[in-house]
Amino acid sequence: MATLKLKDINKIYPNGYQAVYDFNLDIEDKDFIVLVGPSGCGKSTTLRMIAGLENISSGELYIDDELVNEKDPKDRDISMVFQSYALYPHMTVFDNLSYGLKIKKAPIREIEEKVVKAAKSLDLLDLLDRKPAELSGGQRQRVALGRAMVKEARVFLMDEPLSNLDAKLRVQTRGELIKLHEELGNTTVYVTHDQVEAMTMATKMVVMSNGYVEQIGSPEIIYNYPNNVFVGAFIGTPPMNFINTVVSKDGYLTIDGSKIKVDENKLDIIKENDLFDKPVILGVRPEDIHVDNIRGESDEEVAMNSKVVFYEILGADTNVFFNLEGKEVISKVEDTRDFTIGSDVKICFDLSKAHFFDVETTNRYTSKKEDKALADLISISRK
Ligand code: ADP
Questions:
Q1: Whose Cα sits closest to atom 27 in ligand 1?
Q2: How confident is the model at residue 149 (pLDDT cuts 50, 70, 90)?
Q3: What is the rounded distance in angstroms from the CA atom of residue 331 to the CA atom of residue 319?
Q4: Is 10 buried (19+), middle (13-18) or exposed (0-12) by CB count in 10 A?
Q5: Under 8 Å between Cβ of 266 and 349
Q6: What is the CA(46)–ligand 1 centre distance, in A?
Q7: Which atom of ligand 1 is nearest the CA belonging to 47?
Q8: How far apart are CA 50 and CA 40, in angstroms?
Q9: Could you give the percent of the chain with pLDDT greater than 70?
Q10: In what side-by-side order are the strands of the sheet with 66-67?
Q11: DSSP at 189
Q12: Residue 88 in contact with ligand 1 by CB distance below 6 A
């Protein structure tokens, strides 16, 4: 059982650089928290402050309601796994796995039981006599994970543990980590710059940029209700499209001179924020822009003509690129289709899931109805 609380945490490095601003987060028991954001946004710094490897410039850190700012890393009952495996090269896998317990002077039988249990769940039983040099990258990383498991710490901290693995192994180990978390239920804080890892593993994501927390929420909430343009662009591949537009009082918006009907619920947002005839940023995900060739049937009210600039076939789906309002816009089509570059196509917007953002602050506009839907989602995800 472990809960963590980060309250108004700031980090200013000795050279005066502020890497983390006002970080607030309540972590519940069994949570799998993923800190995600571009390189340099302050993820590792935050993790290292939780571990006690970096001092906290201001703010409070609680583990199970105990203030631990001044507590030594070794007394925080935390297990860490880093990107680099940091195994002892002269020791066998068994000795690497058991080292933490040996130091704690645990009884030999208990050590053996725990090592075998961890080795079994990580598929390392046949490798216990090998030394790290005789293992593949993936196997070494599994040993590093096993070492954290054997310690049975209250909190697991992981800093990009999969980033040294090749693509296939990364996906496989990601699955193993999810299963392990379901089995052991350790409260975990995991750092990655990879939004797919974050979406698939997190019970709660913390999206960061430039030292600030941009949004905290379940993957579903972050994907469907991004707080601002940054979050909408960072989460999702291809990223959300952003198109400068204006909604007029007749309920239509204009893109490159074409009129597109705005969904009723989305029109509430424009009404409630008094945005008619004012510039806004429309955010629409690639999967919500559909492409029909010119003969295809499409709802005229939400369609416009455009030209294919480029397309890429990805196997199950195809990304089609357009230029709208002078910017590149991507549509994700759910099958493999050959397009002709430069050809005319009709594109249809499903605006029921689109968002409007402020041109100045880039924050998402919302309506009372949308706030209520979001509040309901949050309360469901807490249960
Ligand atoms: P991330 O894990 O998101 O890639 P980090 O937490 O490692 O980012 O770093 C956040 C910022 O703090 C970066 O701009 C980095 O250069 C800076 N930084 C990290 N460590 C130090 C340090 N010891 N002294 C000064 N600045 C640092």
A1: 13
A2: confident
A3: 6
A4: middle
A5: no
A6: 10
A7: 6
A8: 17
A9: 97
A10: 18-27, 4-12, 58-63, 66-67
A11: E
A12: no
